[in-house]
Write a structure and sequence with these properties.
single chain, alpha+beta
Length: 136
């Protein structure tokens, strides 16, 4: 927290009933609400699993990486055992709205995905931002 400004962190994204409301309606409303509540940045992950890998394939890849130079260096380079079509669509909708995925990492630290709202010229005032947070 910086003074009255806050970081809004939604590690596994909001759960949304997409039969009733779309991400194109919900995400701008969410970021506006968080902005009015004092958020200067929103860090948000996907609201579910995008891909999964089998334990055996991961073990094999890690063992190969230690032995071979051209072996995959991280799990995301392996073909997934499962991909969620619904979450692939959700990911694309969020990307279309300005959400940015976290950088791939071999670290085991939390690096949530992010939403960034671009401010248009009518939202600035003499070069200063007016209303709304810088969301990533």
């Amino acid at each position: 927290m910086l003074g009255r400004r806050r970081l809004a962190y939604i590690p596994e994204g909001p759960i949304l009933d997409e039969a009733r409301i779309s991400w194109h309606e919900a995400l701008p409303a969410l970021t506006e609400h968080l902005s009015q509540a004092g958020a200067f940045l929103v860090r948000m992950g996907l609201p579910g699993h995008l891909r999964r890998w089998g334990a055996e394939e991961v073990r094999h890849a890690l063992a190969s990486a230690e032995k071979e130079q051209d072996a995959p260096q991280d799990v995301s380079a392996l073909p997934p055992a499962w991909e969620g079509p619904h979450m692939l669509r959700t990911r694309q909708q969020l990307l279309d709205l300005g959400w940015r995925e976290p950088e791939p990492s071999t670290d085991f630290e939390a690096k949530p995905a992010a939403v960034r709202r671009q401010h248009s010229a009518d939202q600035t005032n003499g070069g200063r931002r007016r209303g709304g947070p810088h969301l990533r």
